[in-house]
Write a structure and sequence with these properties.
5-stranded parallel beta sheet, binds coenzyme A, 31 strands, single chain, globular, binds adenosine monophosphate, Rossmann fold, alpha/beta, GMP Synthetase, Chain A, domain 3
Length: 633
């Protein structure tokens, strides 16, 4: 491949320090770095060591001081509350400074952790920025997680304060957040000192004297806080993501490298800049929300859209077109599942005709594999480039994308195109040896990772090493398998671990198994991800009951479904389980989840050579057929 992308990419790998130092020049530093890339403690690399910055300053104040104070920074569009509200850069800075002052008044300072458990309202973005302003480390927990998951994060992050709201709104349902939060604090061994509660009109939360404060009142009385300089290598946030066990991984993001890479990505990957309207239809609880609802668009001086609604049902499958046309959105970023939902409800995109989409330039998809059907449907109806790009919570931005801002490369369906600048992506076999073009293997990234990628896991360097660096020394293991073709196009095929992807949300089957095995009647269990036309995958449980249990099986299934909802949360979408006599295993006792998944999805399968008792597989197939799976495709 030759061309503009190829030259820029080659420089990003061969002259990393020069490349990223140049990108860093467009941001404001209190003090420049001593070293662009500090490799003195490899494999722990640090970007912009010695530099002093403030991410909030660069995202808000910098624009106000440059005369862009009256430009829209954030448009809150909430069909579920019938609200559209615009915040200028000046308003955002002032609101954030006051909230930051309110946090300081409660004793929150540099390095302290703050949990944010909020729905999709502007105050969620302001909460993140307020922490950044005073050097506190935020950790946003997605609203669809249950109290138990929240408690796990409280114990790990040990926050001094929590920021929350009285409720979230899911379609037409009002979900009270405060009772969930109170339960989580009750369950957690670590207790935060203060809880700030934003009262929404749809539900009023009761406050606990001495611990809980009314958000609005706290801000009214607060002194606006100045931006606090922090080291470029200081953590900006922790974002917990599913690992293979019930204990989530606390992905750490630094300040300096993060703002440099994200700011660079807006121009070079998304092709947007100052004043452009950019919309990531995700949730602030996910990495996409962190990077592309809040930080990147504001760092780049764009107008970001914060949408509290669904792709369908709020009120219909024309919702996305309405938002694009009403706010003159140039670029939309969402998960393929959202488009599958729209396509299902409005297959001919009739609702699109009602809106003027002339402002719209490109659609970006990520979070799960983009099925060519959905991608082509979007291309056909929107008549703009539709770009699949690959990334992870750990990476903070795309590992692989069509770099539209540099050069739009030809699309190959099924491939998120090429490695993004700074990402040296390779494919290796089980022994860690690189394989040739077209050969499937583990997708890995040669170290060092570019800025914004995780420097470590929160207070757990060992787990960082064992999870990502130990398997293939010198490389970061993405946990995805795939191949690179002869043109350098990367194909991401599947996970190599027990992570599944449900509606673009990453979930751990191991965590669900931990819940199921807590049921008193369950002796053994397995959870696999089965194909679902809308959500990509859905979790499905297999239960082996303890001998002597003769209760109604349906009742036990209902109980385990309720347990997963109660302990992990509705976002797990765990609704189906089946009771079997035994589970297929290897001779060394490993459950054959991959084979079970192939059977469930109706794919061709052969008993693996290591299987202990092949006679179990037909029993599994029968159990699956009874609940509507294992049909040949
Ligand atoms: N707070 C409380 N509950 C939540 C929640 C939140 N923030 N987000 C989701 N839930 C609940 C949902 O209400 C649903 O509950 P239910 O079982 O009672 O119906 C459950 O969690 C599962 O949610 P979800 O998987 O999102 O399914 P859905 O049926 O509500 O919507 C889609 C399906 C495809 C429309 C939806 O997943 C979507 O818009 N996805 C867009 C992709 C996206 O945001 N990806 C993030 C990464 S880019
Ligand atoms: P998350 O950390 O929630 O962003 O999930 C990351 C995982 O989602 C990746 O490791 C992949 O398995 C999957 N993923 C994300 N984007 C893509 C994509 N464009 N194509 C295929 N898989 C993807």
């Amino acid at each position: 491949m030759t061309g503009r992308y190829q030259d820029i990419y080659a420089r990003s790998i061969n002259d990393r320090e020069g490349f990223w130092a140049e990108a860093a020049e467009s941001l404001v530093w209190y003090q420049k770095w001593d070293r662009v890339l500090d490799d003195s403690k490899a494999p722990f690399y640090r970007w912009f060591a010695g530099g002093m910055v403030n991410t909030c300053y660069n995202a808000l104040d910098r624009h106000v001081e440059a005369g862009r104070g009256e430009q829209a920074a954030l448009i809150y569009d909430s069909p579920v509350t019938d609200t559209v509200q615009t915040f200028t850069y000046r308003q955002m800075r002032d609101d954030v400074a006051r909230l930051a002052g309110a946090l300081q008044a409660q004793g929150v300072g540099k390095g302290d952790r703050v949990i944010i458990y909020m729905p999709m309202i502007p105050q969620a973005a302001q909460a993140m920025l307020a922490c950044a302003r005073i050097g506190a480390i935020h950790s946003v927990v997605f609203g669809g997680f249950a109290a138990h998951e929240l408690a796990t994060r409280l114990n790990d992050a040990k926050p001094v304060a929590i920021l929350t709201a009285s409720c979230g709104i899911e379609g037409s349902r009002v979900i009270a957040y405060k009772p969930l939060l109170d339960r989580a604090i009750e369950q957690a061994s670590h207790k935060p000192q203060k809880v700030l509660v934003f009262q929404r009109p749809q539900a009023t939360a009761s406050l606990i004297d001495g611990r809980d404060l009314d958000w609005q009142a706290a801000c009214e009385g607060a002194q606006p806080a100045e931006c606090v300089p922090v080291a470029a290598t200081d953590p900006l946030y922790i974002l917990y993501t599913s690992g293979t066990t019930g204990q989530p991984k606390g992905v750490v993001r630094d300040n300096g490298g993060h703002m440099v890479a994200l700011n660079w990505s807006m121009k070079n990957i998304y092709g947007v800049g100052i004043g452009d309207v950019y919309w990531a239809a995700s949730d602030v609880g996910w990495v996409v929300g962190h990077s592309y609802i809040v930080y990147a668009p504001l760092l780049a001086g764009c107008t970001t859209v914060l949408y509290e609604g669904k792709p369908v049902g709020t009120p219909d499958a024309g919702a996305f077109w309405r938002v694009i046309s009403q706010h003159r959105v140039k670029v939309l970023f969402t998960a393929p599942t959202a488009f599958r939902a729209i396509k299902r409800d409005d297959p001919d995109a009739r609702l699109m005709q009602d809106y003027d989409l002339s402002c719209f330039e490109a659609l970006y998809l990520a979070g799960e594999r983009s099925d060519p059907d959905t991608l082509q449907w979007a291309e056909k109806h929107l008549a703009v480039p539709v770009i699949d790009h690959w990334w992870q919570t750990e990476t903070g931005w795309s590992i692989c994308a069509n770099p539209r801002g540099i050069e739009l490369l030809p699309v190959k369906y099924g491939s998120p195109t090429v490695a993004a600048c700074g990402w040296d992506v390779r494919v290796v076999d089980e022994g860690g040896k690189e394989v040739g073009a077209g050969k499937i293997g583990a997708l890995v990234v040669k170290l060092p990772l570019p800025p914004a990628a995780l420097p470590t896991l929160w207070q757990n360097d060992e787990r960082f090493k064992s999870s990502y660096l130990a398997e293939y020394p010198g490389y970061y293991a993405t946990g995805d398998a795939g191949f690179i073709d002869e043109d350098g196009y990367i194909y991401v095929m599947s996970r190599t671990d027990d992570i599944i992807n449900v509606a673009g949300h990453r979930l751990s089957t191991g965590a669900m198994e931990e819940v199921l095995s807590g049921h008193p009647d369950v002796a053994e269990c397995a959870v696999i991800g089965v194909h679902d036309d809308l959500k990509g995958q859905l979790p499905l449980g297999f239960l082996v009951l303890k001998s002597g249990v003769d209760r109604d099986g349906d009742e036990i299934v209902r109980e385990v479904v309720a347990m997963v909802r109660d302990q992990i949360g509705p976002v797990a979408a765990f609704k189906q389980a089946t009771i079997v006599d035994r589970l297929p295993k290897t001779r060394s006792g490993k459950i054959l989840r991959k084979t079970m998944r192939s059977i469930a999805d109706g794919e061709a399968w052969n008993p693996p050579a290591t299987i202990d008792d092949p006679a179990i597989l037909p029993e599994i197939a029968e159990a699956l057929r009874d609940i509507g799976y294992a049909k040949p495709v």
